[in-house]
Amino acid sequence: MNIFFWLKPGIKIKRWIVSGMVGIILLMVGLTRILNGVISKILNGRGSIFFIISGSVILFISIYGGIVRLNRLLEKPISNGGFIASKNINNLIDKNILDRGLKVVVIGGGTGLSVLLRGLKRFTSNITAIVTVADDGGGSGKLREDLGMLPPGDIRNCILALADTEPIMEKLFQYRFTDGIYKGQNFGNLLIAAMDGISDGFEDAIKRINDIFAVAGKVLPVTVEDVTLYARLENGNIIKGESQIPKKSKELGSPIESVFIKPRKAKPLVEAKESIIDADVIILGPGSLYTSILPNLVVDEITKMIKKSHAIKVYVSNVMTQPGETDKYTVGDHVNAILKHTSEEIIQYVYANNKKIPGESFAKYKEEGARPVEITGKDKELFKKYGINLIQDNFIEVKKGYVRHDAFKLSEEILAMVIEERYSKDRIRFMELNSIMKKSKN
């Protein structure tokens, strides 16, 4: 256990350590005066007794106070056993370790982002998830329409991914009503809506939800302005609304050329900008290219902050294409779309899967019109042109027939690369970060 943990602000045990040391000193002075016979026998005895009694009382009070404070750090007695569990203090110790981890900013939305966050929080609690608020479909879209609030769906998934909650709380937060006027609505969305109603705006509501669920890091909306996503198709048509873009692109048989938001000069959160500047690594994706990642990057100043930051910039490619959005796209096509929209070279590393998709899962995706996102020779030429490092590996796992990123492996490899790139010359920090990574794996 790191002794400096007990000196951390907010633990409230330093006062008992200090007073305990005073008690020990007084006790030792008294004992020393008896043993050494410095003054006359009578005076010595009286003075020594004073020091011994004072020291003993202060030491006793310090030990008692320290035990009381420790019990408050620990969980209250549980079940019928009547014992004090150590889970809470273990969480504090683990958090102390993870608080010294790398500063990670992840930008995107949707399922892909929340999957990656579950892996990242194993290695650091300095995570900022910057999430799109352009969603206008499903339960989020209905709340947005009915209450005039920002869509909570993607934010909810990210909060849950970073939360320290019991399984029952996770089930409750993700519960979707099946009957009545709330049919199809998610309880977590309603909780965020209620918090929005009693808070000083959406930003304040999300901060409170972060606190309630003990989020490892923080989840931020990219902006708190009411933005609408638009797409320009290759046939010239303009499609309004995030939920309509892939649908109309597929119906009209015309690929997406570009996306933009209105109002075009929507301002990002100051906290989001500060997190980007202060980051060790900025990760784009994984997630829907045109409806999750790019809606963040076209928000005014976000791309500028990414370029300005000294962080290492990473793009995590999707494993499968998305019908109506990225049909026939390769890894290079995804990267090229990002560079085209940002007009900046903001990608230094690309992480892409090269593992073949298992047959049964592949057949299911093929029926839906999706296929694996491949890496071509042309892609490698593009990466070479822009000085982008391509990292290929088996980054997938299959759960219940669905192909997902292996969040733990992907997170470990990205963060290990960042430690080597940024801190190889700072031996003390380099060793500390590698130690954190090692402990976090166990």
At the fourth level of CATH, the homologous superfamily of the largest domain is CofD-like domains
Largest sheet: 7 strands, parallel
- In the predicted model, the low-confidence regions spanning at least 5 consecutive residues are 1-8, 73-89
What is the C-alpha radius of gyration, as a whole number of Å?
A: 28 Å
For the biggest β-sheet, the strand order reads: 3-2-1-7-8-9-10
Strand tally = 12
Q: Which of globular, elongated, flat, extended, rod-shaped describes the shape?
A: globular
Helical region count?
A: 18
Per CATH, the class of the largest domain reads Alpha Beta
Mean pLDDT: 85
Q: And the CATH topology of the largest domain? A: Rossmann fold
